[in-house]
Amino acid sequence: MAPQTSRPEWTPEGAGSEFTSHVLAGVMGGHDGMEAGRVMRPASARAGLSVDEHVAGVLAGDRSILARTITLVESNAPAHMEKGQEVLQRLLPHSEAALRVGITGVPGAGKSTLIEALGMQLIGAGHKVAVLAIDPTSSLTRGSILGDKTRMTRLVREENAFIRPSPTSGMLGGVARKTRESMLVCAAAGFDVVLIETVGTGQSEISVRSMTDFFLLVLIPGGGDELQGIKKGVVELADAIAVNKADGPLRIKAEAARAEYNRALHYLTPGTPGWTPRAYTCSAATGDGVAALWQVVEKYVTITRTNGFFAERRLRQNLEWLHLLVDEQLRTYFYAHPAVQQLLPHIEQAVAAGEQPATTAARQLLAAATNLQE
Ligand SMILES: Nc1nc2c(ncn2[C@@H]2O[C@H](COP(=O)(O)OP(=O)(O)O)[C@@H](O)[C@H]2O)c(=O)[nH]1
Ligand SMILES: [Mg+2]
Q1: Cα 171 to averaged position of ligand 2 atoms, centre (Å)
Q2: What is the CATH number of the domain that holds 160?
Q3: 36 belongs to a structural domain
Q4: What is the phi/psi pair of residue 243, to 5°?
């Protein structure tokens, strides 16, 4: 092909070839047999991994594929959901072995610091530790995610640790479902201990309790005779209480708090048959009492595995999970139904104006969604 030439329109009259551009054939025709106009993208920008690649990568313990699989499973995009569920279903048979531990407590109690200390000890003992978080407020308080990561400076660098902040979406139900699924993906990747940190908001503790084998409540000394901002219901969920910050001047107060919590626990009905929850002191900062705390977890596992409750709880948790998923999908189906979408604004208006009672309004909407005759 002959080179094409062009001259700008402002070329002075009578000027020579110095104003002429030559477009060479090679550039016009592409190269290496490439079709003209076709855009090449790097591999990383392509459509994504196949289901097989996700499954094989996670099972092989590939960290980058693990992270991408969690992102897939967390995604709300309809295109990802089906694929995510398929991957998850294939990973589920491989996710039984991991021990699931929930850690809750008021902000500032030292949960993240404790996870760092505990995580480093566990890794030292040959475990692989995944750390997840449920914080339904995390999209509002981004600081807490940063806070957690900065508390885990050693753990983040460990090959045998995997830390994933809370999925950032508003509804607790959605965040909890995603965390449960991420937990199972981590377990399938060979992490044999999964630690789930959650803030003490009440509802999120119940979610974490319903997906973990052991539930630890972290408190701090100096709360007076009240259980500091922690509802009695949450204490009832705990398999152990750790009174953290038992160091320096707080040490004596921590011992007093431990005795007090032990008295309080005495009056509560234990949530786990064959197991009496107790309070312990520890210092996440110095590491004192952290190994002893893990021994409590191990003892608990031995006892509940022997009396059958460990397996029974997991079965029950699977049933709860089923019901949660059905509830969630019913809700999605309901609000996406064209008849509901059409009716809802009118009915809301009527109820708000006091023209229609909420009871008949709800029945009318449900009838519309299910095509039932009222
Ligand atoms: N003295 C002392 N301070 C601690 C201890 N554990 C955590 N802290 C401090 O308490 C603050 C909150 O800790 P963090 O782990 O972020 O709490 P979280 O909100 O429960 O995760 C930080 O300033 C920590 O350094 C401890 O055992 N002793
Ligand atoms: Mg934290």
Answers
A1: 19
A2: 3.40.50.300
A3: no
A4: -85, 105
Domain end, chosen from 314, 335, 358, is at 314
The β-bridge partners of 132 are 164, 196
Kindly give the number of the ligand 1 atom that is closest to the alpha carbon of 282: 27
Q: Are strands 99-105 and 193-199 parallel, antiparallel or unpaired?
A: parallel
**Separation of 215 CA from ligand 2 center, angstroms?**
16
Please give the residue range of the domain that contains residue 24: 1-29
pTM of the model: 0.81
Does some domain include residue 41?
Answer: no
Using the atom order of ligand 1, give the atom closest to the CA of residue 248: 1
In sequence order, which residues have a C-beta less than 8 Å from that of residue 121 and are 6 or more positions away?
A: 287, 290, 291, 294
Residues 122 and 72 in one domain: no
Span 222-262, pLDDT tens digits: 755 455 556 667 888 899 999 999 999 999 999 999 998 89
Closest atom of ligand 1 relative to the 284 alpha carbon = 27
Residues 168 and 308 in one domain: yes
